[in-house]
Amino acid sequence: MSAPSTQDTSPPREQFTGQVGFILSAIGSAVGLGNIWRFPGVAYENGGGAFMVPYVIALLTAGIPILFLDYALGHRFRGGPPTAFRRVKTWLESLGWFQVMICFVIAIYYAAVIAWALSYFVYSFGLQWGDDPAAFFTGDYLQLSDTANGGPWFSLDFVPAVLIPLVLVWVATLAVLAGGVAKGIEKANVIFLPVLVIAFSVLVVRAIFLDGAGDGLNALFTPDWGALGDLNVWIAAYGQIFFSLSVAFGIMITYSSYRKRKANLTSPGLVVAFSNSGFEMLAGIGVFAALGFLAHEQGVAVADLEGLTGPILSFVTFPAVISQMPAGALFGALFFGSLALAGFTSLISILQVVSASFQEKFGLSRRQATLWIGLVAAALSVIGMATTTGLIALDTIDNWSNQIGIVASAVIMCIFFVWLLHKGPELRYHLNAVSTFQVGRWWYACVGVIVPAILAYMLVSRIVDLVQNPYEKYDETYLLYAGWGTLVVLVVGAVVLTLPRWRRSPDEFTPWPAFPPSVTTTSKEAAR
What sections of the protein cross the membrane (predicted)? Predict the structure, then answer.
């Protein structure tokens, strides 16, 4: 099947050099902070070993299907979210910009966590957090505002220990983005992803030989089969898969648009999905082996430990582990170095969505888009996250942009493309026309029923909870502006960015291969 000429008048699109570069870049995006600090705790709290049953089912019925949806949209319509969605239906452009805004907001605070990891990488050599890692993290390091005793909810008092590494993170990120897809993003992932896997594997091997490691692994993997009857456990499994694969907010749409016309999509998608889950399992083993050691040293059960997920796990609980183990400095360097690398490869993918979308609509060069978008994002990141109220802002904005913004984006995508626009057959045909692994009709049920139903339940439940219970007992006025205000920014930004005219019209475009298949298409190709 030869690719016909199209009416697309835009400049030649950048491309990954090949399948390996694309796979490594996609894995680098998917493997992020959540794999290390979220999965182990979620699994432990939701049935231990039994959690793997809903987890695998969620991967097969939601994670992989929606990953294929992103791939099909980006590859067929050759653009970032605004371009791809507009080429499906003009009025869908705003949904594309909504995803771009989500990426922009996430990048602002995501960079701060990487900066923390860099700081702790340095601190680990001298175990500088001392005997009280919790007090060091919130007090000495972040200098967190004491809001409970009248401290400000928003401050411009900068913390040098956060500010300096944060600036370095932004400089490195913009340098990679300025290098482009092949020489920047792909090259960075080809270097950093193997380093990440090797470093984290060494860390895991070291952890499983610690005293008490077996207790930690037993705590993680001992199945509580009764948990399978709890709906919340299944929701947690689908939520973990959804948030860890970098789907439904533009990243995989953008990355797949940089693949050649005849590039295989589904087989690499399976590699990316299972590699991401494999790394989560590796992280679970390493984290809980280390937690078993900590419990052994403190003479308590693993169940009695606190801080098993999120930033507290990484920056409070793990420093406590590192302080008590032999060769702790090396272990700390491996852990925080891995955390920084995982975050960095994800950050460049997040910002590439924004950069690509601005290049396409406003006719900017790669370096122009990187410069302007990067400077604005870096400035907002420094102002909002490098201050004494940075942790509070990060926690609040992350909750609303992820738990509501991304989930809403996924629900809308599935409903619009499958039910309202009836694009399921075309997108499935596209996947099968270029791929070796063929997608069956089961895909319609997954992206049209299972994914939107479960995510809609998650979305409504979360909104109701946030309305009834102030998040983390933060000040309600602050939550109104920093939390709900984040959603307003996402929506208004999407509308405003939709209004300007395109520098080069994306509408004169012919998707390939043609759908429905022409009468000259062979029966074999049509069946695919």
Answer: 20-39, 51-74, 95-123, 158-178, 190-213, 233-258, 270-295, 329-351, 371-394, 400-421, 442-460, 480-499
Angle formed by the axes of helices 19-30 and 328-362, to 10°? 110
Q: Which two tokens stand for residue 482?
A: 């920093």
273-284 per-position pLDDT tens digit: 999 999 999 999
Which two three-digit tokens encode residue 194? 């193997």
Taking CB atoms within 8 Å and a gap of at least 24, the contacts of 125-132 are 125/329, 125/332, 125/333, 126/329, 127/319, 127/322, 127/323, 127/328, 127/329, 127/332, 129/319, 129/323, 130/323, 131/323
8-50 pLDDT per residue, tens:
445 678 999 999 999 999 999 999 998 998 999 999 999 999 9
- State whether residue 416 is helix, strand or coil: helix
Within 146-300, residue ranges assigned H as helices are 160-178, 180, 187-208, 213-221, 231-244, 251-256, 266-298
Work out the pLDDT band at 308, boundaries 50, 70, 90: confident
Residue 157 φ then ψ, to 5°:
-85, 105
Distance of alpha carbon 527 from alpha carbon 438, whole angstroms:
10
Q: What global pTM score does this model have?
A: 0.94
pLDDT at 527: 42
Biggest CA-to-CA distance, the chain: 75
Tokens of 374: 């990067």
351 vs 223: CA distance, rounded Å: 39
- Over residues 480-509, the mean pLDDT reads 96
Task: Identify the H or E element spanning 379.
Answer: helix 366-385
CA torsion sign, 68 to 264 to 353 to 396?
positive
pLDDT of residue 2: 43
Do residues 25 and 186 touch, judged by C-beta distance below 8 A? yes
